[in-house]
Specification:
The protein is mainly alpha-helical and 94 residues long. Helix content is 66%, strand content 0%. The longest helix has 40 residues. It comes from Cetraspora pellucida.
Length: 94
């Protein structure tokens, strides 16, 4: 029986499509978290800090930092503190 294998070019395109999907997802996540940080800063500036501009800058910076950390977790899971990568070892000695 013959086993149908994908040509290497299809594997490369599949990997690029997966990476492209995660890249788009991360940009959307970055934009959402940045907007949340910005809106929290605007509300805090208007209600608590008598229309000062520094709460907007700080909360937007926090939003950028959080979104960057989430994207880094997606593309590099070893960057998470305390994370260990365990390799599967197939010990089938019976």
């Amino acid at each position: 029986m013959s086993v149908d294998k994908k040509p290497p070019s299809e594997d490369i395109l599949n990997e690029k499509a997966i990476i492209n999907f995660y890249h788009k997802k991360n940009w959307i996540t970055r934009l959402i978290i940045l907007c949340i940080g910005l809106s929290v800063g605007i509300v805090a500036s208007a209600l608590i800090f008598k229309r000062k501009s520094w709460p907007i800058a700080i909360s937007t910076g926090f939003g950028i930092g959080v979104s960057y950390a989430e994207c880094q977790k997606t593309f590099n899971p070893t960057a998470i503190p305390g994370a260990k990568i365990i390799k599967n070892s197939s010990n089938t000695s019976e």
